[in-house]
């Protein structure tokens, strides 16, 4: 195989690295920061109609004020199940029910809890970095497989391209982490 024929799919590597970044952002959204947000309920699943269902598919989620989330449950028979799912979710929120409306007052975070959440955010970021490095490793392996028919300059070109993409993605992870930790520590 000649060097002209080897073409590393950088778009595929980039798409896979962006997938790790996207997963990180989803995990960050579920971390509570002391401010109410509808996204904090995304990981919560409710047993509805015989299967586990995302909470936003059984009711309307609103944020009427900075420290309050409300869920208007569409089916009255699911109110208790939604309430139970929230209590078991590990969010540390005690739901208050008024008919089909469940109110979730968001307590202020204490300093210790903020530090814990900041560490969890760091762990999520490290998982994303590892995923990105695994994609980088895969790209470098592809280059090594084809190095026999490739000039050293071409090899260097592809390795540099993969490394540059990796550096960009790791930087994006670090920036997302920095932003999330600042948000968590903000009183």
Quick gist of this model?
Responsible for the release of ribosomes from messenger RNA at the termination of protein biosynthesis. May increase the efficiency of translation by recycling ribosomes from one round of translation to another. The chain has helices spanning 10-30, 79-87, 111-145, 152-185, and strands at residues 45-48, 51-54, 59-65, 68-73, 96-98, 101-105. With 187 residues, the protein is of the alpha+beta class.
Defining key terms:
about 190 residues, alpha+beta, Topoisomerase I, Chain A, domain 4, Gyrase A, domain 2, four-stranded antiparallel sheet, two-stranded antiparallel ribbon, 4 helices, about 55% helix
Molecular structure report:
There is one protein chain. This protein is an alpha+beta fold. It has two domains: 10-28 and 110-185, Topoisomerase I, Chain A, domain 4, CATH 1.10.132.20; 35-105, Gyrase A, domain 2, CATH 3.30.1360. It is 53% helix and 16% strand. It contains four helices and six strands, in the order αββββαββαα. The strands form two sheets. The protein has a four-stranded antiparallel beta sheet, with helices on one face. Helix 3 (111-145) runs antiparallel to helix 4 (152-185). The longest helix is centred in the last third of the chain and has 35 residues, at 111-145. It is elongated and about 70 Å long. The protein starts with 9 loop residues before the first helix and ends with a helix. The mean pLDDT is 88. It is found in: Cytoplasm.
């Amino acid at each position: 195989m000649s060097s002209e024929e080897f073409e590393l799919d950088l778009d595929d590597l980039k798409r896979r690295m962006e997938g790790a970044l996207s997963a990180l952002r989803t995990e960050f959204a579920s971390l509570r920061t002391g401010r109410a947000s509808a996204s904090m309920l995304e990981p919560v699943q409710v047993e509805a109609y015989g299967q586990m269902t995302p909470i936003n598919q059984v009711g309307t989620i609103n944020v009427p004020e900075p420290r309050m989330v409300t869920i208007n449950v569409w089916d009255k028979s699911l109110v208790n199940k939604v309430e139970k799912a929230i209590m078991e979710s590990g969010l540390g929120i005690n739901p208050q029910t008024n008919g089909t409306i469940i109110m979730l007052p968001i307590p202020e975070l204490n300093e210790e809890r903020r530090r814990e959440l900041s560490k969890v955010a760091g762990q999520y970021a490290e998982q994303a970095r590892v995923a990105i490095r695994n994609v980088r490793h895969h790209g470098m392996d592809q280059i090594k497989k084809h190095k026999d028919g490739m000039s050293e300059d071409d090899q260097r070109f592809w390795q540099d391209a993969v490394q540059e993409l990796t550096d960009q993605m790791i930087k994006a992870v670090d920036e997302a982490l920095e932003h999330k930790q600042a948000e968590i520590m903000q009183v």
